[in-house]
Write a structure and sequence with these properties.
The structure is a single chain. The chain is built from 19 helices and nine strands. By secondary structure, the protein is an alpha/beta fold. Among the domains are: about 90 residues; about 110 residues; about 110 residues, Immunoglobulin-like (Sandwich), CATH 2.60.40. A four-stranded antiparallel beta sheet has the order 3-2-6-7, covered by helices on one side. A three-stranded mixed beta sheet has the order 5-1-8, with no helix packed on it. A hairpin with a 4-residue loop joins strand 2 and strand 3. The radius of gyration is 55 Å and the shape is rod-shaped.
């Protein structure tokens, strides 16, 4: 057998086969191509290098990003997720470039670079699409906020303003935020129309003619321009003004007619805030009409009510005039007419009270009339009625008829004072009058037991000069009341005298000391 030309006995061995192709010479274009291809987020650079593990990692990172990002919402991607994904892309690009520097590609480097540049449109286009989707999601979210505000307004409109005030405030805050913070949004563009509906809802009571109920909502609407941009409100800025002025007037007028107390506040606000408005011009005629109506009421079935009304109008109009600006003079004149009418009406009121048997009130009314009226035919009779009313408080029978202004008579009646106190003598009947007797010097109060003694006769001491007064009375029944004056003088005494012709009458006033030293 021939010897092999090569063999161990000659000192030669066969080298092992290499594990892969030898490294290619460094190629910057190839490295750039791999880096750019990996920036697409699809790991294509790794695929050209046949590095399937990194390809899978790139695809996994992109899938995770898509799962988190889609569907797009108004808030967009969390910053941490976006930064993390960008870091992954940059690491993939850097790592791919290092590998591609010496590793041959399955595609020529220039063609691979061109493909990479084209594929960069994928993340760029995706970013643009996502930004548009996010913007649309934001628009929908803002429209959703607008719809919620609209729902609040609709719900609030089904209840009173007092109940729904909080909902109206919340809706207004939403409209304001959309208009101020998102001025270019579709929702913000719809705010002016929504505000018109908002104003109509808040001011609905005015539309229904519920003027008192409309005052507070309209006041609220006047505060809206403080926070809402003027360009969003437009003509709504002054929308509540005329309506509020009208509501203040109509509400005040209704309360004035009902005899309430709120009308002065309504008219005061109207004259202060809208002095030149048509509604403000109606205030003086309205109060003049109220004064005339009360004056006419003095001659009606309830004169005392009318008098009280006139005095109340006098007080309230005087108070209103103090802050009424140009209307002050007219309101002061109306107050004066009301006061004068009330003073004059006290006579009719007193007569009515006297006829109803309320003698204390009748006396007070007539005394007020006499005090406030310095002349006139009714003044003398008012004085007579005041006296008769005081007598009737002690002797109710004396008040069965109104006294006249008659005086004098043919029968003498002498009244003496056997009392240590001044005595006012009041009398009424066919004639009415009063006078006062000075205290009797040296006279004392009688003991009760002494007055009960048979034959007791006051004013009988011939040695005393009793204070006295003689009056002339006609025949008929006259009612006397002796009213002691001064502190501790005691209660009044009374007497009913039937005056007849042919007699001389004497009245004696004295005081009695009862048990316990009372007088």
């Amino acid at each position: 057998m021939p010897e092999a030309p090569y063999g161990p006995h000659q000192g030669f061995t066969v080298p092992p086969m290499p594990s892969g192709p030898p490294p290619a010479p460094p190629n910057a274009l190839r490295a750039a191509a791999v880096a750019v291809l990996n920036l697409s987020g699809l790991g294509i650079g790794y695929a050209l290098l046949r590095r399937w593990g990194p390809v899978a990692l790139c695809l996994a990172a992109t899938v995770v990003l898509l799962v988190i990002a889609l569907p797009a919402d108004a808030d967009g991607l969390p910053t941490g997720v976006l930064v993390g994904y960008l870091v992954v892309l940059l690491l993939a690009a850097a790592h791919g470039a290092r590998l591609g520097l010496r590793t041959p590609l399955s595609l020529q480097a220039p063609l691979a670079l061109l493909l990479g540049l084209v594929l960069l449109a994928v993340p760029a286009g995706g970013a643009l699409w996502y930004d548009g989707a996010r913007a649309e999601a934001e628009q929908r979210a803002l429209l959703g906020r607008l719809e919620k505000a609209d729902d609040l307004v609709a719900a609030a409109g089904r209840h009173t303003f007092a109940t729904s005030r909080a909902d109206y405030r919340s809706a207004l805050a939403a409209y304001r935020d959309l208009a101020v913070d998102h001025p270019g949004s579709r929702a913000a563009d719809r705010v002016p129309a929504r505000l018109r509906a908002y104003y109509a809802s808040v001011g609905a009571a005015y539309g229904r003619g519920e003027y008192c109920g409309a005052v507070e909502p309209l006041r609220f609407l006047r505060t809206v321009p403080r926070t809402m941009p003027a360009d969003r409100l437009g003509t709504l800025t002054h929308w509540p003004d005329d309506r509020l002025a009208t509501s203040l007037y109509e509400c005040g007028k209704a309360d004035l007619g009902d005899g309430g107390e709120a009308w002065t506040d309504r008219f005061r606000e109207l004259l202060a805030d809208f002095p030149g408005s048509p509604a403000a011009a109606k205030v003086v005629p309205a109060v003049d009409a109220a004064v005339r109506s009360a004056q006419q009421g003095v001659g009606g079935k309830a004169p005392c009510t009318a008098v009280d009304r006139l005095h109340t109008l006098d007080t309230r109009l005087t108070d209103l005039a103090a802050s009424a600006g140009n209307a002050a003079t007219d309101l002061t004149a109306a107050a004066a007419r009301a006061g004068k009418g009330g003073d004059a009406g006290a006579y009719e009121c007193g007569v009515n009270q006297y006829k109803d048997g309320d003698f204390a009130a009748a006396r007070k009314s007539m005394q007020s009339y006499v005090s406030d009226t310095k002349s006139g035919g009714k003044r003398d009779r008012a004085q007579k009625i005041a006296i008769a009313a005081e007598v009737a408080q002690t002797l109710p029978a004396a008040g069965k008829k109104l006294p006249t202004t008659a005086s004098g008579g043919s029968i003498s009646v002498t009244v003496k004072n056997d009392s240590p106190h001044d005595i006012t003598v009041l009398y009424t009947g066919p004639v009415t009058g009063s006078f006062t007797l000075k205290a009797c010097g040296g006279c004392t109060a009688y003991a009760l037991t002494e007055t009960l003694r048979v034959g007791f006769k006051p004013c009988s001491d011939s040695g005393r000069n009793y204070p006295r007064r003689t009056i002339q009375l006609p025949t008929g029944t006259t009612y006397f009341v002796h009213q002691p004056q001064g502190t501790g003088a005691g209660a009044p005494a009374s007497d009913t005298a039937k005056i007849r012709p042919g007699y001389v009458y004497t009245e004696c006033a004295y005081t009695t000391r009862t048990f316990g030293s009372g007088i």
